[in-house]
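Researcher: I'm preparing a figure for a lab meeting and need a structural model of a single chain. I don't have an experimental structure, so a prediction will have to do for now. The sequence is pasted below. Please return the structure as tokens so I can convert it later.
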Amino acid sequence: MSEQVLVIIESSGIQDYVFGSNRLRENIGASYLVKAIIEDWIVPDDYAQGNRQAVGHPDVEILWYGGGNIRLRCANAAAAEAFTRAWSLRLLRKAPGLRAIVTHQPYVENDLTRTHSDAMQAAARNRSTQPLAVPALGLSVTADCQSTGLPASAFNRRGDTHAPELYPVSRAVQMKLAQLEAANKHLKDEFRSPTGYEYPLDFDDLGRTVDESADADTRLDNHSYLAVVHIDGNGMGERFRKLQAASIDDTDYVAKMRKLSEAVRSASKAALQHCIDLLVARISTDGKEVFFTATDNSSFKLKRNPKNQSFYLPFRPLIYGGDDVTFVCDGRIGLALAAAFLEKFSERQPDGEQFTACAGVAIVKTHYPFARAYALAEELCANAKQFVSAHDNDGCAIDWHIAPSGLSGSLETIREREYTKPAQADQSNTSKDSPQPRQLYLRPVWVGAEATTFQRWQTITMLVNELKGRDWGDKRNKVMLLREVLRQGADKVKEFETIYGVKLSKPFDEPTVDETELHQAYFDAIELLEFLFELKEDATNANVSAPH
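Model: Understood. Here is the structure written out token by token.
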């Protein structure tokens, strides 16, 4: 046995830590800390130039990292213990509430593959035997943190001097808020964005448009929804396992793992930058105000920061840097941005690698409990991944849900209750078999240029454009009536077509598309009429600067 020790660090409970607050400022600080505990505290600034030494620990080598996890090779057990002690103490002081699992595995001589496999098994045991976190509560004279309910130790403005409101916070929240400046700087350093614009710190600044005087006919000017988008790569664990099996020796293994980890980070960053570029390309100004304008000329005004007169981009990445990505944005652009991310992420890399991913998009009211909105986005993403797996495909897929009010139950329960009709309600069902429920929706759908089936994102966007077009655009009541008719079944749809002299068209003129799929696609498209502002690059606006 070698004296060397493999150390694996894995972040734990990230979802609760990052998304457990309804205040975007706290979510931003928490997400930055999740990144910082690995990338800032351990990985040196010149890592890309070949420096693999852990910050402050010359006898600890970084093997590879990504997705909130890192693998380290320590010279001996003493070095591993010293590193873990110092890092853990910093974690407790600087990121209270953020949990991590650290696994030490003695090296098998000249066999990193076996050592890593043994370490992963040990890490799995560590995860399953984690002690339940029971925070120490306060005495009767303590104030409660408004975000966590734990004893407050300070007021929020101690870490966030520009906060719009004053409230008591726990130590964990205080440390999250203290990261806002660093988080904003990192975001601006990582991604290009135009002069005069900034990323919002509050959900209300994501593009919310509220006009209390707006009537039903101008409801598009009265919009208070945000989109929570969660994206997860497909089969990444299997990719890494295959590399492990194909490695010749330790040197080859480490080189391949580093290369794949970097390729994932690069593809993810490029996809997010693509989203920002598409967003910026649709921004225009009249000299006083700044507007986001979709390809169909639907638009909304961007909000201005009253302190410095810059404008807020209606978009904010929270988790990024790997194949697990989460961002929030105005509810009208969430689906278009998610689809654009998937298309860019799945482009073939220079070395021939191709990645795929799935996205879940939860569109909810601006002040809806954020943790529940994220949980829904995560569930939608998982549903899209199951869809991909069921079709033995390695493509990209997207699923979404719009929640105009609260949510009751799981995604499956909601769809069974609100988007499914008993077959006997459809008079066209003449089968002698036992009646089966009738699904009203087509989603999830495939995304990307390689998707060729009817059940793809291009189908939905084409139908939305049709319903906004000349024949339907000024007949909103007819469109809403069609939605109710689609619930009633094929016979009622034919009757509707006859009465109104219309024909539900088949996008792409695909003769194999059956009636059920077509009706499901129309149902999805109608629901998205107010929630799909498409983005396409427009070189004339690409370098827009905000007015001052």
